[in-house]
């Protein structure tokens, strides 16, 4: 091993100069010291001199260098492997930290009534967002930030943290922590965001319903949007939805979600090392949502709601519904479910206490009973039974039976509502006076007369739209129930008896219908035999202004024969002139109607039904009313329909709302 050291006579440099004296540099090999020219210098002083380095064996040096080379090779190899296999991924991550894509919500479409009056509005909405990847990394700094934000938005820090944890897989995406902020809150958030990476304030839009407080029954029709839940977010991810997006939850807001939502845009922005915006790289504003024009008339909706509430108050009841349809095309002119609620409370973020109150209310104000309520039909069902008997040829309009107060079958008695009966009765009188005996006979037969039987009754009822969904453009529509032999065997493990047939012949015995189904059936008699699919939306206006009318959909062109339609119509007209609906005889136009009193509980009042159309010769309006536990249809429900018809047609007998 060679060792270099300074000569004590040198000037302190290891190599004084390339031309320096050779004697100034001495070389030691082991204990032998020589000058550069090889002359030995064996002195005691030379053995005592300090060495610059430590003596290392050649074998150890080689081992050390080999190990160092191997480690270096491993590092280089791993780097090359990562670059080859995941280089693109890490490059994209780095790019994402510098360039971010922000989604730009489109403006939600507006909903108008048929006279172009807005039923929805988009109003400014301040939202606080946190981007997890940009928040403070140290636990204490993070706690301090959340504590400050908690004081501004009045939300516990733990709730904010939980909100962030839900979105732990998308660290670079902003998380909505609070919205519907007040102006004062927004100002404080903006000040905090100016020096806090990861905190931002968004000034977006939210829904507002201008008639939500004055005509709350519209809430069941229009509905409201709300924050998407995680399950739906995953399902709708492929359609461009984000985890914090609003989505229609009920009503038209849900049915027409895709049209109202439009197409979201995007904005690519460049951030600096502090995650602060440097510049906007590119932007696509997206496409605004489409507007909807309804068939509903706001004034008629308001009047129908007021009439129903007044009718409920008069009989001291709280639940009911009104359906108003144009029988010429199935357009819904008014749709009232009561009680109702203000959809603004949901659009602004319903409070837990308010939601609990609504859900616990026994009258179920969130329930759209006009389309979802399933109730026994009572005597309104007789219209379908009578039409089926005529259409099948079982009876003629002039066929008569004697009503003496009821039918005795063995030990069972099936009564008329009128003591002593109605005397000789044909279809017209049976409908006008709602004679049970007539419908018992044509439905289940009596003596030598063979009736329709349960299968034929159910078949004709289904032709009129009962027992299935009609397809209205609203969620939560229900089917009702048309009981059969098989149903009774399965549901009750009982055989079917003639008494069951008698019961369903008058709309009892397990028959369940929705108010919408009774209105649709009535429309068939009003328009001469066509069953239309009910619809709420009349026109869709696209972003470019193009108007697309929703054409009427015919479910059945001719449900029953014209003769059957005519016979039932005459009976409905007679109900107003001489029968159970005489209270409507002074409406400015000729009205046809049918009352109904549907028993459903042995200790509670029956449901009150009334269904009608007008004018009789050229119908343009069907009005159907149900008051739950209202008692007699002629006393509780008929006044509600009369109030609506009087308002609509006016004192001169002309349509007030053509």
UniProtKB/TrEMBL annotation:
**Domain Penicillin-binding protein transpeptidase: residue ranges:** 320-645
Q: How does it sit in the membrane?
A: Single-pass membrane protein
Q: Note the SUPFAM superfamilies from the entry.
A: beta-lactamase/transpeptidase-like, Penicillin binding protein dimerisation domain
Sorted alphabetically, which Pfam families does this protein's record hold? Answer: PBP_dimer, Transpeptidase
Keyword field: Cell inner membrane, Cell membrane, Cell shape, Cell wall biogenesis/degradation, Hydrolase, Membrane, Peptidoglycan synthesis, Protease, Transmembrane, Transmembrane helix
Where in the cell? Cell membrane; Membrane
Where is each Penicillin-binding protein dimerisation domain found? 104-277
One GO cellular component from the entry?
A: plasma membrane
From the record, what ranges are coiled-coil? none
Which GO biological process entries does UniProt record here? cell wall organization; peptidoglycan biosynthetic process; proteolysis; regulation of cell shape
Q: Which InterPro entries match?
A: Beta-lactam/transpept, Beta-lactam/transpept-like, PBP_dimer, PBP_dimer_sf, PCN-bd_Tpept, Penicillin-binding_protein_2
Domain of life, source organism: Bacteria
Q: What is its main location?
A: membrane
Query: What GO molecular function terms would the record report?
Result: penicillin binding; peptidoglycan L,D-transpeptidase activity; serine-type D-Ala-D-Ala carboxypeptidase activity
Protein name per Swiss-Prot or TrEMBL: Penicillin-binding protein 2
Q: What species does this protein belong to? A: Candidatus Uhrbacteria bacterium RIFCSPHIGHO2_02_FULL_60_10
């Amino acid at each position: 091993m060679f060792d270099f050291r300074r000569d004590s006579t040198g000037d302190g440099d290891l190599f004084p100069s390339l031309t320096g004296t050779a004697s100034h540099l001495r070389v030691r090999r082991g204990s032998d010291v020589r000058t550069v020219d090889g002359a030995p210098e064996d002195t005691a002083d030379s053995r005592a001199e300090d060495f610059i380095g430590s003596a290392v064996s050649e074998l150890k040096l080689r081992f050390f260098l080999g190990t160092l080379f191997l480690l270096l090779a491993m590092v280089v190899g791993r780097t090359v492997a990562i670059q080859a296999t995941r280089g693109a991924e890490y490059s994209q991550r780095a790019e994402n930290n510098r360039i971010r894509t922000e989604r730009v919500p489109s403006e939600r479409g507006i909903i108008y009534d048929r006279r172009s009056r807005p039923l929805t509005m988009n109003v400014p909405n301040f939202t606080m967002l946190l981007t997890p990847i940009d928040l403070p990394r140290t636990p204490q700094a993070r706690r301090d930030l959340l504590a400050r934000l908690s004081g501004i938005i009045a939300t516990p820090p733990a709730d904010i943290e939980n909100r962030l944890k839900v979105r732990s897989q998308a660290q670079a995406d902003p998380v909505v922590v609070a919205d519907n902020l007040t102006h004062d809150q927004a100002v404080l958030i903006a000040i905090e965001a100016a020096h806090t990476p990861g905190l931002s304030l968004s000034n977006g839009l939210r829904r507002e319903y201008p008639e939500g407080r004055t005509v709350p029954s519209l809430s069941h029709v229009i509905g409201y949007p709300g924050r998407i839940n995680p399950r739906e977010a995953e399902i709708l991810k492929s359609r461009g939805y984000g985890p914090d997006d609003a989505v229609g939850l009920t009503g038209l807001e849900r049915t027409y979600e895709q049209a109202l939502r439009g197409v979201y845009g995007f904005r690519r922005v460049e951030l600096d090392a502090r995650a602060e915006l440097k510049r906007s790289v590119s932007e696509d504003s997206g496409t605004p949502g489409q507007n909807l024009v309804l068939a509903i008339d706001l004034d008629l909706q308001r009047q129908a709601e007021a009439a129903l509430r007044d009718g409920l108050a008069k009989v001291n009841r709280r639940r009911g519904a009104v359906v108003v349809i144009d029988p010429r095309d199935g357009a819904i002119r008014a749709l009232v479910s009561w009680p109702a609620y203000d959809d603004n409370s949901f659009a602004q973020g319903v409070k837990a206490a308010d939601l609990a109150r609504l859900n616990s209310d026994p009258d179920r104000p969130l329930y759209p009973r006009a389309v979802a309520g399933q109730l026994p039909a009572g005597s309104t069902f007789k219209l379908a039974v009578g039409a089926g008997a005529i259409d099948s040829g079982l009876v003629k309009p002039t066929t008569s039976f004697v009503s003496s107060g009821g039918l005795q079958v063995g030990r069972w008695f099936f009564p008329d509502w009128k003591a002593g009966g109605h005397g000789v009765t044909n279809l017209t009188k049976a409908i006008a006076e709602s004679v049970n005996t007539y419908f018992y006979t044509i439905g289940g037969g009596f003596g030598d007369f063979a009736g329709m039987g349960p299968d034929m009754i159910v078949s004709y009822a289904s032709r009129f739209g009962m027992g299935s969904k009609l397809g209205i453009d609203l969620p939560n529509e229900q089917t009702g129930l048309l009981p059969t032999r098989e149903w009774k065997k399965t549901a009750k493990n009982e055989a079917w008896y003639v008494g069951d047939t008698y019961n369903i012949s008058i709309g009892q015995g397990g028959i369940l219908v929705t108010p919408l189904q009774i209105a649709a059936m009535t429309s068939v008699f009003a328009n001469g035999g066509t069953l239309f699919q009910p619809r709420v939306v009349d026109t869709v206006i696209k972003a470019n202004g193009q108007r697309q009318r929703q054409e009427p959909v015919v479910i059945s062109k001719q449900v029953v024969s014209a003769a059957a339609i005519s016979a039932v119509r005459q009976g409905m007209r007679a109900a107003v002139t001489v029968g159970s609906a005489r209270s409507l005889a002074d409406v400015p136009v000729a009205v046809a109607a049918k009352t109904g009193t549907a028993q459903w509980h042995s200790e509670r009042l029956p449901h009150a039904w009334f269904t009608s159309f007008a004018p009789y010769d050229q119908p343009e309006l069907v009005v159907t009313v149900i008051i739950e536990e209202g008692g007699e249809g002629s006393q509780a429900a008929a006044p509600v329909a009369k109030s609506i018809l009087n308002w609509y047609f006016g004192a001169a007998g002309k349509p007030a709302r053509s």
